[in-house]
Amino acid sequence: MTAETVFEWPGGAAVAVSLTFDVDADSGFLGDSPAYARRLTSLSEARFGIVRGMPRIIALLEERALDASFFVPGHTAATYPEVVPMIAETGHEIGHHGHIHLRTDKVSTAEQREELHLGFEALEAAGAPRPVGYRSPAWEMTPETLRMLIDAGFAYDSSCMGDDRPYIERYEDMSILELPVHWSLDDWPRFGWSIDLGGNVADTNELYETWLAEYRAAREGGRHVIFTMHPEVIGRASRFAVLERLVDTMLEDGDVWFARLDAVAEHVRPVLT
Questions:
Q1: Residue 219 carries which DSSP code?
Q2: Euclidean distance between CA atoms 188 and 230, whole angstroms
Q3: Which of 81, 96, 192, 237 could form a disulfide with 131 if both were Cys (CB 3.0 to 4.6 A apart)?
Q4: How far apart are CA 203 and CA 207, in angstroms?
């Protein structure tokens, strides 16, 4: 791929937009420490994403006839058996997001392998098709992770940040199609406050203005842009209203391909390989 590479989107769309959701639920806490199993308030915050956030998200996507991608840890699929059917029955992609949301750089190769295996196993048991896309917990990967993804036959990864267009992520003799993300296009850095680590409780207008500016820039350049959200975060009413506003602004513009990441991967692969 060169600096001049331009992708042509289906139907002559001016821009490709992917709305993606990491359905971490309890795993987001338990992957940090098993001690959270006794912390009922923290677990209740995670549960909000399932009880309130997910229904709001699914309803919005259905009302606007939009496709999206959901990355579901195996632990979420097993703990909340309603989640995978909720996603699959409405036609959205289900991607792999580990099992108990362990950071790959903080565990052994054997633990990484188990995370991958248990994630596949739980998603299959919940009725999900075998995932073709992977997103690492906390967006960190190791060389061992990359090797495992290739060996498992994933069609793409969505954890790295080396471009603002689809590209090939390489390490030594390994490579994978990358659909890149970025912290600025994630709701968690803005609103992911915790009693242990602190964090931000940002102005929702900042989310709208920043994401709108990125969308406009992607539209001008004919690019693909990925927004990453968490149901327990974006599902809060005031924040969700901003997501609705952003989506409706894009729909009013027209010529937007709202695409699942697996569809984007299939579309761009011939250009990149």
A1: H
A2: 7
A3: 96
A4: 7
Residues 18, 16: Cα–Cα separation, whole Å: 7
Which two structure tokens, joined as six digits, stand for 135?
């997103």
Angle made by CA atoms 235, 213, 254, in degrees to the nearest 5: 80
At 182 the pLDDT is: 98
Q: Please, are residues 67 and 259 in contact by the beta-carbon 8 Å criterion? A: yes
Average pLDDT over residues 222-239: 97
- pTM value is 0.96
Domains annotated for the chain, with CATH where assigned, are 13-272 (3.20.20.370)
Query: Nearest-CA neighbor of 97 among 166, 195, 31?
Result: 31
Cβ neighbors of 196 (< 8 A, separation 6 or more) are: none
Q: Which residue has the tokens 């338990």?
A: 30
At a CB cut-off of 8 Å and minimum separation 6, what does 192 contact?
199, 200, 230, 233
| Closest to 9 in 3D by CA, of 227, 216, 214, 258 | 258
Give the C-alpha separation, 112 to 101, whole Å.
10
What is the full DSSP assignment across 141-209? --HHHHHHHHHHT-SEE----S-SS-EEEEETTEEEEE----GGGBSHHHH--BTTTB-----HHHHHH
- pLDDT tens, residue by residue, 175-210: 999 999 999 999 999 998 777 776 677 789 999 999
Residue with the two structure tokens 């970025």:
182
Cβ neighbours of residue 4 closer than 8 Å, sequence gap 6 or more? none
HEC-encoded secondary structure of 18-34: EEEEECCCCHHHHCCCH
Give phi and psi for 171, each to the nearest 5: -150, 115
39/157 Cα distance (integer angstroms): 33
